[in-house]
Design brief:
By secondary structure, this protein is mainly α. It is built from four helices and no strands. The longest helix has 35 residues.
């Protein structure tokens, strides 16, 4: 059976989740900014430079979405706690992961292009960094959410719908 967690702790947890993700996104963004000042960046073809630019914009979007819950909470509910805020913050954090995946994917193209100088290989290689995060950050949680909702519909408690460690089962 699920433990009831006080609302103030839930808010602390959701803001902490954003704090855990943010340093990685900021580090990626920092490397993206530094890359344009590298001498080799000017040697890249225009498509690769624009792909990097788009990846940088996706990182900016990710930072904005992941930082938004803290900014909102500080301005709107600094001394309050609400389930509406937890829902809002959770949606923003989950939304911020998608541009992060896109940024990692596009920059993987750039890196592979620098190494191989082959656009086809680079696009194929760029897909790989998207697959695992999409699977772990979206597919697995949504599958478990559906499993829990189905269990509730059937009158089962959460203990009868555990998180499956076997990724191949349905």
């Amino acid at each position: 059976m699920k433990e009831k967690i006080p609302l103030k702790d839930l808010i602390k947890f959701v803001l902490e989740e954003a704090r855990v993700i943010l340093p990685g996104v900021q580090a990626l963004f920092g490397f993206q900014l530094i890359a344009v000042f590298n001498d080799r960046f000017a040697d890249l073809d225009s498509v690769t430079r624009y792909v990097h630019l788009i990846a940088t914009f996706f990182s900016c979007t990710s930072v904005a979405l992941i930082m938004a819950p803290a900014a909102y909470h500080r301005q709107v509910e600094p001394e309050a706690a609400s389930h509406a805020f937890i829902t809002y913050a959770s949606k923003l954090i989950c939304a911020g992961l998608l541009p992060l995946i896109l940024s990692m994917t596009l920059d993987s193209y750039v890196i592979t292009k620098v190494v191989t100088n082959d656009s086809t290989v680079s696009w194929l290689a760029a897909i790989a960094p998207a697959v695992l995060p999409l699977f772990l950050w979206y597919y697995v949680p949504q599958r478990q959410r559906r499993r829990l909702e189905e269990g509730k519909r059937l009158g089962l408690n959460e203990e009868h719908a555990p998180l499956q460690s076997n990724f191949g089962s349905t």
